[in-house]
Amino acid sequence: MYAMFVVVKNTKKIKKIVNALNEIGIKGATIIDTMGGGNYYNNYLGSRPAIGSALRTIEDVSIFNKTIISIVYCEKHVIDAMDAIEAILGGDMKKPNSGIIFTVPVVAFRGGELEKYVGQYHCF
Q1: What DSSP assignment string belongs to the chain?
Q2: Domain total for the chain?
């Protein structure tokens, strides 16, 4: 099992990503607003003129990312999810401001509904 973290700059792509995860068999996810260190430094530690804040609101430019956290049962689903997410985000995650995807092993867990879906999707 893996905990998969997907940090996405283009928040308008979140619905497509969640739909793709569901199609792969990854049914549960938590989505939270997050901010990179650069944005925090530039927007919160430095000065924030009122005009710049107003323009950001008008232009619908967000300093926040969306981070999707999901427990994924098998490595095949992780690879399939990464491929699908990268395609949705433009096909090259190495481009600046695309986002990042990474996983960490999960040794044990309690709660959630993962066990309900484990038998429905086979890992090869």
Answers
A1: -EEEEEEES-GGGHHHHHHHHHHHT----EEEEE--HHHHIIIIIS---HHHHHHHHHTT--S-EEEEEEEESSHHHHHHHHHHHHHHTTS-TTSTTSEEEEEEE-----SSSHHHHHTTS---
A2: 1
CATH at 93: 3.30.70.120
Domain that holds residue 8: 2-36+65-112
pLDDT tens digits, one per residue of 57-89: 444 456 788 999 999 988 999 999 999 999 999
Distance CA 123, CA 66 (A): 28
Q: How would you list the strands of the sheet with 2-8, edge to edge? A: 30-34, 65-72, 2-8, 99-105
- Average pLDDT of the segment spanning 102-120: 77
82 assigned to some structural domain? yes
Indicate yes or no: pTM above 0.85: no
Mean pLDDT of the chain: 80
